[in-house]
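Q: Two folds, back to back.
A: First:
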Amino acid sequence: MNVKHIILLLVVMVSVLAGGCKYDWILPEEVPVIDPEVPISFTQEILPIFSEKNCTACHDGSPAPDLSEANAYASINSASYINRTTPEESVIYTEPHPDGEHTVKYSAAQAALILAWIEQGAENN
């Protein structure tokens, strides 16, 4: 094999390797800063997360908690899904958390919103 063939082979190999590499950078989701002084509305901000994440496909009566629009607040408050003493240990926050093991997961922004709502007292507003 002569020098021209070797150079041509190297150029082709470098072209294939360089052209075959594609990087799809996955940027981490930005978690919004939530003002603790601004009340978070359960009906307008928290309840829509349950239907958006399709939680109500399974949690619409059985199994618990019932996350349907009419019963969600009473269901998560009556069965110890909210821990007001240690909000970050609340089941409604930890189970579908992005790092949790539940099949359906909140986004990081939704998890932050739910945690902030619990920290504000988990009001039915």
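A: Second:
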Amino acid sequence: MLKTIFYKKQLPPHTAKLSASFALLVIAILTVTLSRPADSSAQSLEKLNRFVQSTKASDAATQLFAQGRDLLQEREYGDAADRFKRFLNDYPRHKDVDAALYWLAYSLTKIERFAEADRQIERLFRDYPKSNWADDAKSLRVQIAGQVRDTKTITNELDNDKLEIKLIALQSLFQADPERGAAVVADIIKPDSTASPKMKETAVMLLGQHGGTKSGDTLLALARGGDPKLQKTAIFWLGQSRDSRAFEALQELAGSADLEVAKTALFAISQQNDERAKQVLLKAARSGQSAALRREAIFWLGQRGGDGAVDDLLQIYESDSDVEIKKHVLFALSQHDSPRASAKLNEIARSGGNVEVRKQAIFWIGQRGDEQTLQTLIQLYDSESDAGIKDQLIFAFGQSHKKAALTKLMQIAKSDSSTEMRKKAIFWLGQSKDPEARKLIEEILK
């Protein structure tokens, strides 16, 4: 992770522009996570922990219940079910019978004894309709229904007043019957639908992941216009689609006048590891309709591994005169372990022409943090005359945790011919906890 240091400067300004790319990546990861089949495990286990911890009693019943909780956390579901059964048999009038019924059902679900789990849930609803565990039990029943393809139970909960249960029901419906799920989604995302934005977005996610043969037309229509948020979600899932029409649509959207749409399409294309995708990214990197889109394409081009990506980046660097584009290429090169990428960064740092570009190369070399690159920077400082470059090198030394970097800063602080550089070195020594650095500062202050 890059460090942000407030010393007249922070990270190179152009790295802030990469935030959109990283944001898209994060969104993609969250999208995949959120669209997985629902499971109330983490949330319910947290609730169970709070429940057990809030119980002040230390009697045998409470201890037995706590044993069940501990076994659940250890994923010993069969043993946990046995503990909760014992609790119900030994303490049928206990105040926590409803909680034990829910956790017995939960444990049984985990070992795929679905019919038995459903009977415990039914007992909970019948005997404790106002239980604090009723909603958890309803969610669990819907998840069970998805496993056993009970679409009647699932569809009954699609109109539930509680959004969380509706979302779980929709996920379970896709698990039980993807074609029917796709039909329900078509209604949810209609312009006149009263469904909440969260419901609509989740519906599109599920459609993209599980929609079957009917999903393609809907995703294509959403990707080409409509609700901007749903449009981006649809574009993302087109990137995961095997529909033969998806790539052509993404290529078209990558040329959109709407920058956010074009960037989302480029991201979706970047997830496909084939020659077609590479060529689209390469074209956008070289001649995209805006500098922002070109930078985005360069970023994703740089995420593709192998020497081919390095070749493409080097060609863009050599053929382009735009300083910001060159900076983005340097960042992309810094993401590669290729010796040729490292050699190019070193070459630019030494004699790249434009000072800002050279400083950028130095920054990314410094981020590598190994002894070899550090020695390269130290040698460069000794041969360099430009104050701006020297300043950037001192910054790199200050960011390093290597002893050689600290030694170089101490040398600069003691004997550099430039008072300004000595001050900068002293500043970074002051950030160090190294006793030698502190001793040197004390000597300078005397």
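Q: And?
A: Confidence is low (pLDDT under 50) at residues 1-38.
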